[in-house]
Write a structure and sequence with these properties.
α2 (23-44) packs parallel to α4 (73-94). It is globular and about 55 Å long. It has helices spanning 9-21, 23-44, 47-68, 73-94, 99-105, 108-126, 133-140, 150-182, 188-201, 204-220. The protein has one domain (9-223). By secondary structure, it is an all-alpha fold. The protein has ten helices and no strands. Helices cover 76% and strands 0% of the residues.
Length: 232
């Protein structure tokens, strides 16, 4: 598949990023389960209730998507996140953790995910194969041909670093808090409330800030797409 005539790397990456974000509705669907879980835990101290209602809220959003026959990707992502959180809560309970430790365990997968994603994105840049480059490859029809153009590699590296920045900020902000709550250095309820707020504030808003920076970089240049020879 050849790239459309006159299309630029910047245009391709902008389109792929817009598709990945899911718009305002996708942002809301990602935030609702965390809001519900945090609010119910802090007001009722019923961990199972907080988990169950947050799952129920996500399921309702999923049903609405199905009825409207629109993409369920972002709701499913939220459900998977809750499911992994529930797994960590269950593991904490089986290991004899207190209710406070179980509530904190709900937020651990997100911290681990952002840590791993930061490392992955950073390594991809350091080894000279920035992950954003594969967005370009998915359009040209050759997943690696973009790597032959140093200008494209440099652009993709800058964009990949910007993509990694929100993940790094989340880890730096949330990781020490989680450790402080788990060691009782800070009251667990306070930490749960702070982590709940940070998870929302540092979710889509931070992602959008990074996207804005990426769009600024993309708006400065026009790097021509190079069709893959094999795609002709």
């Amino acid at each position: 598949m050849n790239a459309p005539t006159g299309e630029t790397v910047e245009a391709v990456v902008r389109a792929q990023l817009a598709k990945a974000l899911g718009g305002r509705r996708g942002m809301v669907e990602a935030a609702v389960p965390t809001v519900v879980f945090t609010a119910l835990w802090l007001t009722t101290r019923e961990l199972r209730l907080a988990l169950a209602v947050s799952i129920a809220a996500a399921v309702v959003l999923l049903v609405v998507r199905l009825v409207q026959r629109s993409t369920v990707q972002f709701v499913v992502n939220a459900l998977v996140g809750i499911g992994i959180g529930w797994l960590f809560v269950t593991m904490a309970a089986r290991n004899g953790g207190s209710e406070d430790e179980q509530a904190l365990a709900y937020f651990l997968p997100g911290i681990l995910y952002n840590s791993g994603y930061t490392v992955l994105l950073a390594l991809s840049c350091l080894v000279g194969w920035p992950l954003v480059g594969f967005m370009v490859g998915s359009v040209t029809g050759d997943p690696t041909a973009w790597h032959d153009d140093r200008q494209v590699v440099r652009l993709c590296a800058r964009l990949t670093w910007l993509l990694a920045l929100p993940c790094l900020v989340r880890v730096v902000a949330q990781g020490p808090l989680w450790l402080a709550g788990n060691s009782s250095a800070i009251d667990a309820d306070t930490v749960v409330a702070m982590l709940g707020v940070l998870k929302i504030v540092m979710g889509w808003p931070l992602q959008l800030a990074a996207l804005g920076a990426m769009l600024w970089v993309l708006g400065r240049n026009r790097t021509p797409m190079q069709p893959s020879p094999a795609a002709g």
